[in-house]
């Protein structure tokens, strides 16, 4: 089997169907950046067809764990994961697996809208070309822009630069770019932090719409955002007991449960604003 074939196409029904309702089963024993222990002992299962929100104080490892779910951290020198990340039962860190293929099925949207300095059309077609897609590129681009609720605003200027759009439009363009390859999972790392409240609301509505077809994992600093969009919430904290600053998962449950009746005192204190 070639490296590219090592991740099997899960097919469109994989998001909701199946006996197992876990899209990504992430078991972190340790995540290191060089000698620094960034995250320890966290089991973070991402359920199919749901939005899982990661919350917690700065430096608790939310982005680190999120980026581990599609091997985005491989690009960082010194990064090392001890543990196991399974996507639909397949080990994404297996030596035979090509990270580019992992990211084709587990797409990512970043904090800062980061369209490439190319046309709106080419931005969305980028991943398709990277993956040597042989089908109807224009059809896929239109479909992705519609899914990202941007088509009506850009259909008459597809050749204009992606950089000419407003911040909120740029973020929707990045979402279109991410969904163009028809991933199974979308990872969103604080996708609204650079946006105004109206653009934020728009992206939140879009996330709820996208949940019908995709599994979503979302890092957010905004607890209200987690209560508005996340079905499941994972709360991380920082352990300073051994002289370091190591993130770990404190609890993970239905969002209503985490916010209204948390199991752990630490979660209560964080949600109650006793620390940030
Ligand atoms: N590329 C890197 N190299 C070294 N250390 C890193 C790197 N990225 C993150 N870290 C460290 O790992 C820890 C977790 O960082 P991470 O960005 O995952 O936390 P976070 O919870 O997402 O924080 P924030 O909410 O501030 O974005 C922090 O102590 C951070 O300084």
From TrEMBL:
Keyword ATP-binding attached: yes
Stored InterPro entries: AAA+_ATPase, ABC_transporter-like_ATP-bd, ABC_transporter-like_CS, P-loop_NTPase, PstB-like
Matches recorded under Pfam families: ABC_tran
SMART domains per record: AAA
GO molecular function list: ATP binding
Keywords for the protein's UniProt record, in alphabetical order: ATP-binding, Nucleotide-binding, Phosphate transport, Transport
Positions of the ABC transporter domain: 22-262
PANTHER family, A to Z: ABC TRANSPORTER I FAMILY MEMBER 17 (PTHR43423:SF1)
Sequence similarity: Belongs to the ABC transporter superfamily.
Protein name as it appears in the record: Phosphate ABC transporter ATP-binding protein PstB
């Amino acid at each position: 089997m070639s490296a590219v074939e090592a991740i099997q196409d899960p097919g469109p029904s994989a998001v909701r169907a199946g006996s197992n309702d876990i899209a990504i089963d992430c078991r972190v024993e340790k995540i290191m950046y060089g000698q620094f222990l960034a995250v320890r002992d966290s089991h973070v299962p991402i359920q199919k067809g749901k939005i899982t929100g990661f919350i917690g104080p700065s430096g608790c490892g939310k982005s680190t764990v999120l980026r581990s779910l599609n091997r985005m951290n491989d690009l960082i020198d010194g990064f090392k994961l001890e543990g196991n990340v399974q996507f639909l039962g397949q080990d994404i860190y297996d030596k035979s697996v090509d990270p580019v293929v992992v990211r084709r099925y587990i797409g990512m949207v970043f904090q800062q809208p980061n369209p490439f300095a190319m046309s709106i059309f080419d931005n969305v077609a980028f991943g398709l070309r990277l993956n040597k897609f042989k089908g109807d590129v224009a059809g896929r681009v239109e479909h992705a822009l519609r899914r990202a609720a941007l088509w009506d605003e850009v259909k008459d200027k597809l050749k204009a630069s992606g950089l000419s759009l407003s911040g909120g439009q740029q973020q929707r363009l990045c979402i279109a770019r991410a969904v163009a390859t028809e991933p199974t999972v979308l990872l969103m790392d604080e996708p609204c932090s650079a946006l105004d409240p109206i653009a934020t609301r728009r992206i939140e509505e879009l996330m709820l719409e996208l949940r019908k077809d995709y599994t979503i994992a979302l890092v957010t600093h905004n607890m209200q955002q987690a209560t508005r969009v996340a079905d499941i919430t994972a709360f991380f904290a920082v352990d300073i007991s051994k002289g370091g600053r190591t993130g770990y998962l404190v609890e993970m449950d239905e969002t209503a449960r985490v916010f209204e009746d948390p199991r752990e005192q630490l979660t209560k204190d964080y949600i109650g604003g006793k620390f940030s």
